């Protein structure tokens, strides 16, 4: 027979935890010896290990108390269910761990890897740091609000930027950020953008210019708020679309 302290040390819990298990009816309280001390046997150690293992697996104490009196079949079925739940939680925690490691590495952008790679490549293509950050923020908004359409729209833009002529239009758009709103170059840039997009999409309205969609409203609202020059360019593009 062993004392409560010896039992606690052997199983790896505190004596206070054992007393809580006694109070909750999880572990029967043994009789005291002549000196008034509780004395525990091997069965108590085995029962305590079972309780501790279930508790560490996240099983509520009330549920553990039920399992203590369950039939063997019910007990085994419960253990299988708990194991399945643990597998799900472990998978989730591993995903959290990956995000944590990306955060530690300075890669905290919550976007698919191909989108992140695309954003990193923009600077190599001549786009400003301001443009790259804006594109990152826009894609975060699009993926958060329209996850079902975001990837298709991203691939469409990536194909657009693979065309040197169309990429130059985006570069010109980027570099127009600091122009005054009445700069005469806006008329020509707006015309070139409309011609290029209509040539690429034909008579169909391109997804990024479909004024009835929520996505371009979200995107263009963010873009326009970034620069009076971009806001002016958007006004000219919309006016020419109506012609």
TrEMBL record:
Keywords: DNA-binding. It comes from the Bacteria. The keyword DNA-binding applies. InterPro entries: DNA-bd_dom_put_sf, MerR-type_HTH_dom, MerR_fam. Residues 1-70 form the HTH merR-type domain. Pfam families: MerR. The keyword Amino-acid biosynthesis does not apply. Signal peptide: none annotated. This is MerR family transcriptional regulator.
